[in-house]
Amino acid sequence: MKKLIILLVLVLSSTILTAQNDEWNLEVNDHTDYTGIAISNGRIGMLTSKKPLEIQHVVLNNVYDVDPNLKVSQILHGMNFGNLDMYIDGEKITENNISDWKQTMHMHEASFTTSFRFKNKATISCTIYALRNLQYTGYIDVKVAAEKALDLRVAGKIITPKEYQKPTNTYQVLKDVETTMPILQSKAMSPFGKHLVSTSATFIWHAINSSREDQRPELKHIVMGDYENALFFNKEIGKNEVLEFAWTGAQCTSKDFSDPKSESERMVIYNLLNSREVLLKQHKKLWSELWEGDIEIEGDLTSQQDVRLALYHLYAFGRGDSDLSIAPMGLSLQTPYNGHIFWDAELWMFPPLVLFNQDIARSLVNYRSDRLPQAQQRAINYGYDGAMFPWESDDTGEEATPPFALTGPFEHHITADIAIAFWNYYRVTKDKNWLKEKGYKTISEIADFWVSRVTGNADGSYSINNVVGANEFAPNVNDNAFTNGAAITALNYAIKAAEELGNDPNPEWKDVADNLKILRFADGVTKEHDDYNGEIIKQADVNLLSYPLSIVNEEEAILRDLQYYEPKLSKEGPAMGKSIFAVLYARQGDAANAYRLFKESYVPNQQPPFGALSEVATSNFSYFATGAGGMLQTVLFGFAGLDFSDGGIVQKNPILPKEWKSLTIKGVGPDKQTFRID
User: Fold this and answer.
1) Are the CB atoms for 417 and 549 separated by under 8 Å?
2) Predicted local distance difference test score (pLDDT) of residue 16
3) Mapping DSSP to helix (H, G, I), strand (E, B) and coil, where does residue 137 land?
4) What is the CA angle 248-251-252, rounded to 5?
5) Cβ count near 380 (within 10 Å)
6) Residue 310: which of 83, 107, 538, 540 has the closest Cα?
7) What pLDDT score was predicted for residue 214?
8) CA 50 to CA 246: how far, in whole Å?
9) Which pTM value belongs to this model?
10) What span, in angstroms and rounded, lies between the C-alpha atoms of 531 and 541?
């Protein structure tokens, strides 16, 4: 019966994409059930909609507002500048009066096209870009092909969320010498008044030179209410004629700019007075460079698409020039988790990123080192030494977990996870200046925290008491396996980092690392915590000691823990646990179980029509970047056999599932190595 259920899941997954696809493009023509894709450049994210000429919302990275009632920060949903109203012969285009609807996610160039036919009058396509080269801007390219003569009316809109305060809507035509620049603009305070948000937008006419402004359609301004600002034009199009234009918007806030109003205007003017070819060529070039780090799977198109979509989202949610991290849902949603940064960044997303793109990986670790003073103060606040990082982090670096959640005061393994990511960044890059200036200070402060956090036992061993482990179903336990294992690893890495810089490591680091308890049952199975007795677990905890920590590293012990804990994994938990099991089976040479768990780690969580990942199979919140990190780790550190070592990236015992003909990992490490497995 179990095999039948798995088979049904895999069959159902093949129906998510309903049209012909290839390895770079996901094309769908059915939106009966619809979960959007995030079109993002690491600074802004736009969530696609099934409705023609619309996006659902805009998410602004690292811009948080604080709800005074909940006392919790929340990443900001910005003004929506991605919606157009289009009328043909006086009739508004809606999802109910179009045919031949089709959407295509172009992963290589990070663009998203919706095309459809309006009655027998016109074929329309609309392509959305979050410009990688202009990180605060979006660009919507529109093509209207008339099948008969028609009257066209198009309105570009800025929609301000109703929760915003004091909205103002304006339109002005700026002029410098002979150049006129029409700018639609909306400003408002964020819902709880923390930030001023300003959005500017305008139309761009591709076929009309900027010096021939007399040929542009006349623009008219209309304020549709306090929260909707619009700019529109009318144009007659002859039979078989094609009109191409773009709508572009820029969104800036007082989080990043002292004068967000003027800066958003300048960015829109920059787009207005550059050609489409120039702007999109730069965008595509940057994405082509990102894709130098890639995974090629031969013989299994579905897995190829799934893996590429996962890698696309990690690239789309990060920037190498930002010193920002990535939230569990990236830039796709405000909820769940409020856009906060968790261990998801360091343990799940960071390993694939540091293999393929050291710039984005550096931003993730610098996000933490930039917030070291707040972590040091938090350690003092709780009576410890060193640095104690928050379980949920926002722009402040202080604890952002809702007060009711026990994870905030007790889930301490996050502090060790950060040190592990820091040392792995150094192992891959060998950037000694970074280690000296940023890395070692954080790693050593984390080690000092763990020395102060442990409790000495009469037999000379150490315990870590009263924590929430990776398995959050078991709060306030003693000697949690992963917490202790992560602390041991962080302490050992601190010793290595000190020696690398010629410093003398604190001798207490080694004492605690050598004597911190890892509990076991009588039969040798690693015990999750001192009171654990076979209960259902939320996600992998003990098995993380085998990968990525390599504390439990003998084959017999790894398999014993795998066989014990896999049946205990909750169906209601996030899928990352199965990714860990898959890595471990692959490393033991069991390709069949590794592939089974690889598929189980994400296929049940795919949402139609594109296969966007939710955190659990019973929800449709996406895109779950943490799950993407987990499935990619199965491919990279399981099937491909890659691993971190003090000498850099190494390969050990790769193995392929029978469903794949070959696996090629391209652009690995600073030297852009290629690994191929046949």
Assistant:
1) no
2) 54
3) strand
4) 145
5) 12
6) 107
7) 56
8) 20
9) 0.95
10) 15
Structure tokens at 310: 């996962």
Q: Are 636 and 652 in contact (CB under 8 A)?
A: no
Residues contacting 394, CB < 8 A, separation 6+: 64, 73, 75, 338, 339, 340, 341, 400
Point out which residues pair with 64 in neighbouring strands.
Answer: 75
pLDDT, residue 4, reads: 33
Give residue 307's identity as a one-letter amino acid code. Answer: V
DSSP 215: G
What is the CATH T-level fold of the domain 300-677, as seen in this structure?
Glycosyltransferase (1.50.10)
Q: Give the integer Cα–Cα distance in Å for 171 and 184.
A: 5
Residue spans of the domains in the chain: they are: 31-289, 300-677
Whether the CB-CB separation of 44 and 251 falls below 8 Å is answered with yes
Q: Which mean pLDDT values do the consecutive 10-residue runs of the chain (678 residues) have? A: 35 46 94 95 98 97 88 93 98 97 98 97 98 98 97 98 96 92 97 96 78 71 94 96 97 98 98 96 98 98 98 98 97 90 98 98 98 98 98 97 94 98 98 98 98 98 98 97 98 98 98 98 98 96 98 98 97 89 98 98 96 89 95 98 97 97 98 97
3-state secondary structure of 497: helix
Active site residues: 472, 615
- Residue 89 CA, chain-centre distance (Å), reads 42
Burial class (CB in 10 A: 0-12, 13-18, 19+), 238: exposed
Q: What angle do CA 478, 480, 482 make, to 5 degrees?
A: 160
Residues with Cβ < 8 Å from 305, sequence gap 6 or more? 17, 21, 23, 26, 611
Secondary structure of residue 665 in the 3-state scheme? strand
Beta bridge pairs of residue 578:
none
* Residue 167: partners with Cβ closer than 8 Å, 6 or more residues away: 160, 186, 187, 188, 226, 227
CB contact at 8 A, 208 and 149: no
pLDDT score of 575: 80
Rounded-to-integer distance, Cα 607 and Cα 6, Å? 17
Strands annotated E in 333-488:
455-456, 462-463
Structural tokens at position 620 = 């449709």
Report which of 402, 324, 392 is spatially closest to residue 361, judged by C-alpha positions. 324
453: its two tokens: 């956090």
Compute how many other C-beta atoms are within 10 angstroms of the C-beta atom of residue 54.
Answer: 18
Please give the sequence-ordered ranges of beta strands (E in DSSP) within 320-474, or none if there are none.
455-456, 462-463
Question: Which amino acid is located at 483 in the chain?
Answer: T
The length of the chain, given as a count of residues: 678
Of 110, 54, 6, 12, give the one whose Cα is nearest residue 609. 12
Rounded Cα distance, 133 and 269, in Å? 15
**Both tokens assigned to 147:** 């099948």
Q: Answer yes or no: are the C-beta atoms of 499 and 423 closer than 8 Å.
A: no
- CATH number belonging to the domain at 31-289, selected among 3.90.180.10, 3.30.70.120, 2.60.40.1120, 2.70.98.40: 2.70.98.40
Look at residue 15 in the predicted model and tell me its pLDDT.
41
Nearest-CA neighbor of 601 among 315, 305, 306, 301? 306
* DSSP H or E segment with residue 316: helix 301-317
